[in-house]
User: What shape does this take?
Amino acid sequence: MIRDEELKRLIRYAQGMGLSVHFKPYKKYSKIAAEWHPDGTQITIYTHKSDSKIEHILSLIHELGHHKGFIENQRVQDPKVEEALNAEEAGVRFRKRIWDMEASDSLHWEQIYKDTNCKFNINKLHKQREFDVWQYEIYYYKNRFPTYDESMEKKKELKKKWKC
Assistant: This one.
């Protein structure tokens, strides 16, 4: 019940910024949990029956962070980031821009948490933020996202660090 209310508040928060929020089943074989549309109009959260509500909440906060970064930038998407996101094979400079954008936009997460009066343990937010930024760091340095085993190892490390 509490998570349902948090999710509703986050959706209203998004709507207050002119966004529509849609929940859709995962795309087959996709690892994308959510996406913010670069035109600044929509967030899509991909769902699966095994997802927890907190996973949807964290995904929504992640995407709202991108929108707040977009607003901070006068509602203009960095053309180099957009080019990098659309590139089949992103060069190292492009990957660095993506990593920088993810890290920068994640700085809004705590404010979103506070603005929407979330009640879940804030360490879960910190853990998720650190994990997300780490994934893009791996992408930058290795031109690939972390493997399943690398991700599981990092999640164990972060769970211990953030005690959640």
Summary: The helical segments are 2-16, 53-72, 79-86, 92-106, 109-115, 122-142, 148-162. DSSP finds seven helices and three strands in the chain. The chain has one domain: 2-162. The longest helix spans residues 122-142.
